[in-house]
What we know:
By secondary structure, the protein is mainly beta. It has 2 domains: about 1-90, SH3 type barrels; about 95-130, no CATH class. Helix content is about 10%, strand content about 40%. It is built from 1 helix and 7 strands; from the N terminus they run αβββββββ. It has one helix at about 1-15; strands at about 25-35, 40-50, 60-65, 70-75, 80-90, 95-100, 130. The strands form 2 sheets. It has a 5-stranded antiparallel β-sheet with strand order 4-3-2-1-5, with no helix packed on it. The protein has a two-stranded antiparallel sheet with strand order 6-7. The radius of gyration is 22 Å and the shape is globular. The model is unreliable at about 105-120 (pLDDT under 50).
Amino acid sequence: xxxxxxxxxxxxxxxxxxxxxxxxxxxxxxxxxxxxxxxxxxxxxxxxxxxxxxxxxxxxxxxxxxxxxxxxxxxxxxxxxxxxxxxxxxxxxxxxxxxxxxxxxxxxxxxxxxxxxxxxxxxxxxxxxxxx
Length: 132
């Protein structure tokens, strides 16, 4: 019984006007800012680095402002967000580190020495790490 009530309340507050975006996409979020008795819109444009699902869903946008990285977390169903524009869609690829193909342990060699950029675990190959 209580689960039905909660679902009805969440359905009322859920927003349907936002575009589908995933981590790696560049978006522009128009945020309502209240200053005294005036209200204005401010754009925050950056790359989506995280998105959570569920009733209290949120997404994190990162941008570089005057040489400093700025991250901002927005609740997805918030009234503070006026609109979200999808500027560019791209796919975020995970960074993997592995030894060269000569190594028999290649995918398990994640530890590296920063002095000579060689594999520490595998004593056999001693080849430079590939970052792909």
